[in-house]
Design a protein that fits this description.
By secondary structure, this protein is α/β, with parallel strands linked by helices. It is built from six helices and ten strands. A six-stranded mixed β-sheet has the order 3-2-1-4-10-5, with helices on both faces. Strands 6-7 form a two-stranded antiparallel sheet. Strand 1, helix 1 and strand 2 form a beta-alpha-beta unit. Helix 1 runs parallel beside helix 2. The longest helix is centred in the first third of the chain and has 12 residues. The protein is globular and about 50 Å long. It starts with 5 loop residues before the first strand and ends in a 10-residue tail after the last helix.
Length: about 190
């Protein structure tokens, strides 16, 4: 039986210093049926050449070059190019746990979107664990979805993030993302 393909979209803009570590964390996933789409968003620091070198070493990597349009534009292009049934984003200065994609796939049954906590490295080298404020579970009734939508950005009574504003800790059905991709405002700079 053929494994489900997952598209990993990596927006790349002037991250030469971090890019090798990022790509190695993706290439060494325990789940191997990956399509890795590197969107070079007009890099000027050598990131472009690094992308091309990695693409020559691993056939799962595809590099797309475009003029600088920002991370949202690069992600939007990645959604358009993705062939996998599922999709996740990893920024060029991020790394992921080697079991992340396999874990996401294992828990994606009957869901359109999966979100998890993440570990953020601070400038001083310390790590901070971050988690969504929602309880673990599958939310699908009308009432549950309304509750999520009301509290997605921030739980007003607790003044904390409802769903973390990062993309590295999300896993999507590609077809679902395509239905909303045209509405993504490319001026978005965070989250």
């Amino acid at each position: 039986m053929k494994e489900t393909q997952v598209s990993v979209v990596v927006p790349v803009y002037n991250v030469q210093e971090y890019l090798s570590e990022c790509l190695e964390s993706i290439l060494h996933q325990t789940y191997g049926a990956l399509e890795i789409i590197l969107i070079d968003d007009g890099s000027t620091d050598g990131s472009l050449e690094l992308c091309d070198r990695y693409a020559k070493k691993d056939t799962r990597i595809r590099v797309i070059h475009q003029e600088n349009g920002g991370a949202a534009a690069a992600r939007k292009r990645g959604i358009q190019e993705a062939a996998g049934e599922f999709l996740c984003f990893v920024d060029g200065d991020d790394t992921i746990d080697v079991q992340m994609i396999g874990f996401f796939l294992e828990h994606m049954k009957n869901a359109d979107l999966l979100t998890s906590g993440c570990r953020c490295e601070k400038a001083d080298g310390r790590y901070l664990q971050r988690f969504d404020a929602f309880e673990e579970g599958v939310y699908k009734t009308k009432e549950e979805i309304e509750y999520i939508l009301r509290n997605m950005i921030v739980f007003e009574d607790r003044m904390e993030d409802g769903v973390l504003p990062y993309l590295i800790n999300k896993f999507y059905k590609t077809d679902l993302l395509r239905t909303v991709a045209e509405n993504i405002d490319t001026r978005i700079r965070y989250g």
